[in-house]
Amino acid sequence: MARAGLTKERLTRAGAELADEVGFEQVTVSELARRFGVKVASLYSHVKNSHDLKTRIALLALEEMADRGAAALAGRAGKDALAAFADVYRDYAREHPGRYTAARFRLDPEAAAASAGARHAQMMRAILRGYDLAEPDQTHAVRLLGSVFHGYVSLETAGSFSHSAPDSQESWSRIVDALDALLRTWPTA
Amino acid sequence: MARAGLTKERLTRAGAELADEVGFEQVTVSELARRFGVKVASLYSHVKNSHDLKTRIALLALEEMADRGAAALAGRAGKDALAAFADVYRDYAREHPGRYTAARFRLDPEAAAASAGARHAQMMRAILRGYDLAEPDQTHAVRLLGSVFHGYVSLETAGSFSHSAPDSQESWSRIVDALDALLRTWPTA
DNA sequence: GCATCTGCCTAATAGCTTTAGGCAAATAGA
DNA sequence: TCTATTTGCCTAAAGCTATTAGGCAGATGC
């Protein structure tokens, strides 16, 4: 029997593509096997189980977003950096909705530690270098930025902003403006 | 055979409790049947299918949150109202994580129209009465608030803030402070 | 008290997940 | 190059969930 050439990496990539097509929740070992023209059980030599597969897709998505974030931040500072980074999240979610959802998959501690999560946090802090925030306000601000980015993208993806004016793009720009203004005048306790 | 007294309502409530115990994704027609000491097929006289059940749980959660929100807003204005309303979301998610997730379940248009979604939007606008915002900035602000509330709660529930100082409660308070400050000095285009 | 309705049941189909064990293709060693 | 081992994909099987069809008996209406 000819071998299909399965590997963790190929399965993970194909899983990510599948997620973007049908949604992360609908990513299934069976469908993946079907796409490789292979029997389901065969995948279990490469991937521990369904959870493992999903974890790998999540890690891939986190890496990809971190890479894009790093590229966006290079040579930028202040509001410029903030806006570019914000767009990285939003654009990624629009281009790769399944992967984006995957990135929110709850990772177990080991996977989380090995993930690009730390890079994301570092980049947020790098953006805040353009603003004058000491601890613990810096941490509060990091959490706020993470919340806004994730929250907005998540609501937008769910279609919450698509049935009313103004355009979502406009709100997004104005929200980034607002965040910039807020960070410049952050109210200290 | 003694009847179990199944109804849509009881199934929905039990489904919501199940969601809080094991997670919304793990809510299953089978498990629900098990809890009622009844065969799986029996549920299908009361609920169209699994999707229908989840939709009902989502609608219940949205109602409950809207009710709490309304109670919190009564007699409050300005920052007071903002903080109380924010806490409604956060507290609800902490008390009822499964229901909270359910509330984010993607509803089809008919269900969405019949949901408490509109009440949520109205309450957000009511909060903004305490600030001086004209359209379209008011809509931008509503979207920002929704994003921050949902984003923060979602990240917090995922445990993103639980492994580092400062305390999540502190960040939450300071973020509400920051939002209040931002709304009072909202940057107009 | 009888007829109807309704609620829960049995039975059956179908899909996904996961484990165990087997054969053959690829690879490594002599 | 021939053999030995590893490794990749397969068959088989069990268990779970979802969903539909059809049946019997308890509840309800006249």
TrEMBL record, chains A, B:
Keywords: DNA-binding, Transcription, Transcription regulation. Residues 28-47 bind DNA. GO terms for molecular function: DNA-binding transcription factor activity; transcription cis-regulatory region binding. SUPFAM superfamilies: Homeodomain-like, Tetracyclin repressor-like, C-terminal domain. Signal peptide: none annotated. The keyword ATP-binding does not apply. PROSITE patterns: HTH_TETR_2. Residues 5-65 form the HTH tetR-type domain. InterPro entries: Homeodomain-like_sf (IPR009057), HTH-type_TetR-like_transc_reg (IPR050109), HTH_TetR (IPR001647), MT1864/Rv1816-like_C (IPR025996), Tet_transcr_reg_TetR-rel_C_sf (IPR036271). This is Putative HTH-type transcriptional regulator YobS. It comes from Streptomyces aurantiacus JA 4570. The lineage of its organism: Bacteria, Bacillati, Actinomycetota, Actinomycetes, Kitasatosporales.
